[in-house]
Amino acid sequence: MAEKLELEFEPETGAGPLDADYVNEEEEMIGWEFPPEFLEFLKKQNGGVPKKKYFPLGENTKVLERFLCLDADYEESKFGDYDIGVVWSDILDRLNDYLVPFAAVFAGDFLCFDYEDEESETVRVVLWNHDLSEDDEPHTTPVADGFEAFLKMLSDE
Fold it and tell me: Which end of the chain is more exposed for a tag (fewer CB within 10 A), N or C?
């Protein structure tokens, strides 16, 4: 059985309760189903700023600014700019058909689910680099073999 990780979040940084109909709409729009462990995560905390926000990437340490949310009220909500569909639409021209952002990283990059390996049981997590990505040519770096593996990488320093 997979170990469940509970992250603490800064107060009032997450969107409201997850709306199942909106999840279905978003999945239909992006063309992929979110990993089940990510949806369970969003049911507990629909986006937000985690207290453990640092993760290693090669020789460097990256800073996760916030997890994105699925906010059915994105047009009116103060968290609307952090809705996965909104962010996905904003950077779609520099993604490919397999990348879906789920967290903002310091300096404009995003953590994405990479659905390219359709045979894999887990969806890989990659860092999308906004500076190096061009139209239809995303630049990514592998981070973790799945969402739960990524959560285990987070630290508070």
Answer: N
What the block records as the tokens of 135 is 């139209």
**Rounded to an integer, what distance in angstroms lies between the CA atom of residue 95 and that of residue 135?**
7
Contacts for 148 with CB less than 8 Å, ≥ 6 apart: 2, 3, 5, 37
All domains in the chain, ordered by first residue: 20-153 (3.40.1580.10)
> Using CA atoms, how far apart are residues 55 and 111, in angstroms rounded to an integer?
11
Encode pLDDT of 6-31 as tens digits. Answer: 799 999 999 999 999 999 999 999 99
Going from the C-alpha of 10 to that of each of 7, 14, 47, 76, the distances in angstroms are 10, 9, 11, 22
Tens of pLDDT, residue by residue over 39-63, are: 999 999 999 999 999 999 999 999 9
